[in-house]
Specification:
7-stranded parallel β-sheet, 13 helices, 9 strands, 13% strand
């Protein structure tokens, strides 16, 4: 089966290309940047480039995007060109070329303001049923691209699955206060409780979705590490998250103290991956229990694939105030 992976120079695109090549799959990587995993260099906003790239392809895995880190450095038109026009070009050429499965990598950022409860309210329980409330041009354009995907499924019967991935980048947090108070591994270990997925698990979710797209037809899935929390924890999570963590994982406090790590005082949302596990048969491996096992053993809790892909950065230049400028 011939597979097209867009965004092959990025975190997830490279991880997918590494995995597919290791499996002996016939995969073609495309990106606007040159890389060891990019076979064709070009812009997906260019219809002629897409027409050439998609010839002979049976499955499209569309990860290419402008991300939140680009909001302060790129125009709104740039976001429309890449995230909407680029997706439209791929969908139209997919239909014309008889593609049998189209996977669109979206983002939990589409939920926007729905993930930020007011003070005194419980943490938000984020499932696929939550109504998105986009907060910036990134989430607006990703949501619009999702709608295009649904349109092409309804009108042209194109099998399309949308995977709303949580954060998997290894870069430092964009919040200055978080960077000052917590080490990056400390932050990312805690995020696996509620808003992060290891890139190896993100890859496995995409590969399962590729296999099941034809049977499912259309679906949206949250792709995040399995949370240990339940709805009964939401009130306390927004006021005293550390107490909830200690109650579920009594040994965590000692393991964190030994590393000089700290708990977050509160969590504002919890991503729920139940639908992806149920319908895709997805079984993410890298969760908070895995983190604690690694702390006991003195090993890195990141997957080998996460370490291989490493930090990609989102800009060619470096910024003194953080990993990227914040709007």
């Amino acid at each position: 089966m011939s597979i097209l992976v867009t965004g092959s120079a990025g975190h997830l695109g490279e991880a997918l290309m590494r995995t597919l090549r290791a499996q002996g799959a016939q995969a073609t990587g495309v990106d606007i940047k040159h890389s060891a995993y990019t076979d064709l260099v070009g812009d997906i906003a260019d219809r002629n480039f897409v027409k050439t790239a998609i010839r002979g392809i049976r499955t499209v895995i569309h990860t290419a995007t402008l991300h939140k880190p680009h909001v302060a450095t790129h125009s709104k038109q740039d976001f429309v060109d890449t995230n909407i026009t680029g997706t439209l070009n791929l969908l139209e050429e997919a239909v014309l070329n008889g593609v049998s499965a189209f996977l669109f990598t979206s983002t939990t950022s589409t939920f926007g303001a729905a993930m930020n409860p007011a003070k005194g309210e419980p943490a938000a329980w984020i499932t696929e049923e939550v109504m998105p409330q986009p907060k910036n041009i990134y989430s607006v354009t990703k949501l619009a691209a999702e709608s295009l995907c649904e349109l092409f499924h309804r009108k042209d019967k194109l099998p399309v699955l949308i995977l709303r991935t949580s954060r998997f980048f290894p870069e430092d947090d964009d919040n200055a206060e978080t960077r000052q108070r917590y080490e990056t591994p400390n932050v990312q270990a805690l995020e696996l409780l509620y808003r992060r997925v290891d890139i190896a698990d993100a890859v496995s979710a995409h590969l399962l979705a590729m296999e099941k797209a034809g049977t499912i037809g259309f679906g949206k899935y949250i792709i995040s590490a399995t949370t240990p929390f339940a709805t009964s924890h939401l009130g306390q999570l927004h006021t005293d998250a550390s107490a909830v963590i200690r109650s579920l994982y009594p040994e965590s406090e000692g393991l964190f103290e030994a590393k000089g790590w700290k708990f977050f005082p509160e969590f504002d949302r919890v991503y729920v991956n139940a639908r992806a596990r149920r319908e895709l048969g997805w079984e993410p491996e890298y969760d908070f229990a895995h983190v604690l096992r690694c702390l006991r053993e003195g090993t890195d809790f990141r997957s080998p694939l996460a370490r291989e892909v490493g930090s990609k950065g989102y800009h060619d230049e470096e910024f003194g105030e953080g990993p990227f400028p914040v709007e």
